[in-house]
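Risk register update: the risk of archive-format incompatibility is retired. Evidence:
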Amino acid sequence: MYSLIRPLLFKLDPETAHHLSLDGLRLLEKCGLAGLLAANVADNPVEVMGLTFKNPVGLAAGLDKNGDYIDALASLGFGSIEIGTITPRPQVGNDKPRLFRLPEHTAIINRMGFNNDGVDKLVENVKNASFDGILGINIGKNKDTPNENAVDDYLLCMDKVYQYASYITVNLSSPNTPGLRDLQFGEPLRDLLKQLKIRQKELAKKHGKHVPLAIKVAPDMSSDDIADIAQSLIDFEIEGLVATNTTIGREAVAGHKHANEAGGLSGAPVCELSTQTIAQFSKLLQGKVAVIGVGGITDRPSSAAKKQAGAQMVQIYSGFIYKGAKLIEEAAAAY
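Archived output:
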């Protein structure tokens, strides 16, 4: 059914189509009709970060930033839903237009800039949702928070979402918040991880449950950078790695009318780079940190490539925009 709807949606501005699609899906879910769009995905439980996911295909962060559509999206057959990225205070994000489709490449460029309604609104939405599956919450820092104070933003978000999250993803890799990617490396990373783990232990004691932490990284890194991050994740006993976010590279879409738009490129063009990054991390992590593969999954073979590279499960976003819930079924079949 989505294949019939998509041509109409793609005639609209991407951001308008985004909200219209999700509002429509929520309406179908409330009317008990979401099954018209749902994937046919058999339960195939996977154990990742000590959690049991009903199948190995999750929704990546970014589609539902505020947790407005949790129940509607869950009805499509995902094994997990990750919402966010959320920041302590609401922010409008970057100026529009900030979202661009590249259909010839099954790709998207975005420079949204962590537009969201703030962590308190997300928590309210999570409380009102009936979804009882695996819910990841992706946290970030406000644009106007300097990097030297970034840990305060992450800890504040962590405090507020901890009791409602199945796991928490720490986004250090969006190219659309100036300076954010600098937090992925060296002492800034180690200091952040140290403080996150201290707070995790405090919150686990306070709430009587252990919520795993995952770090989301970029694909645009040298081998030395990857080795540095991998060692830091091991040293601080971080439970998960989400690899990868969007790329700032444009080689794969050179010549396209939107190729020079600022922002992160996602979809098919990032697939190989993401898979290579996963393979390097997997080799270095040696099973000590769970790996969630994301980036350019558009069919069963691209999902299988992530598995072969060492990802225990995958997440989808851009491919989902192009193919709908059918991609959940295709990606799950690789596992």
